[in-house]
Amino acid sequence: MRSYDQYCSVAKALDVVGDRWTLLIVRELLLQGGSRYADLVRGLPGISTNLLAERLKTLEAQGLVARYDAPPPIGTTLYELTDAGRDLEPVIRSLVRFGARYMAAPTSTETFRSHWLAFPISELLDDADPTAPPVVVEARVAEAPAFIEIADGEIRTTLVRPSTPPSLTIEGNAQLALGLLTRQVDVELARQLGLGLTGDLTVLQRLRFNGPHVVDDPADLASER
């Protein structure tokens, strides 16, 4: 990457992570932890394998990513963030909040992966009743189910089925599901627009929204369908 040649910390940071795809690679490693090359390819639809290899090589050279050979039964090379790489998590989380306002107008060509729910769910939602028993919401909005665990004042998203069975299952369009979870789309409209809802709808009351809207006007969703 060419340098901005500016003695400025912002410019210095962009010299390291300002290339296209670089911060999305960091996003994937934050969400997935130690990742195989194939995992990163699946989590970065649209990137060429040559470009991914080049970006990983640059991140390694900058001390942000390390790779190691995992022992059996994995038995393959894994990539993970170093301590310096993990220092970028607040940057990614700030981008989550900043970028959420632009999620209100997705294009027809945009892809979505289940684990991408993790950052907007944890960053834009709070547990409205931390003293209540743990609950799980299953979201079937992409290639694999995601599980939103609400417990002890924290909200986390995982692709691993938890021991607690889901109290509510949501199935359908990702933006519509996010609109429902953030209470910007009500249950009746969500169902009218084709979102499948099975289980205890009162679970939605545990979620308190604290960010920019991912749905500008619910009526727009209705007009698009």
TrEMBL record:
Q: Which domain of life is it from?
A: Bacteria
Question: Which keywords does UniProt give here?
Answer: DNA-binding, Transcription, Transcription regulation
Query: What's an example of a GO molecular-function annotation for this chain?
Result: DNA binding
Which SUPFAM superfamilies does its entry note? Answer: Winged helix' DNA-binding domain (SSF46785)
The HTH hxlR-type domain, residue ranges:
8-107
One Pfam family recorded for the sequence: HxlR
Keyword Transcription regulation assigned: yes
Kindly indicate whether the keyword Transcription belongs to this entry. yes
PANTHER family given for it?
Answer: TRANSCRIPTIONAL REGULATOR, MARR FAMILY, TRANSCRIPTIONAL REGULATORY PROTEIN
Q: What is this protein called?
A: Helix-turn-helix transcriptional regulator
The species is Gordonia asplenii
Upper classification of the source organism reads: Bacteria, Bacillati, Actinomycetota, Actinomycetes, Mycobacteriales
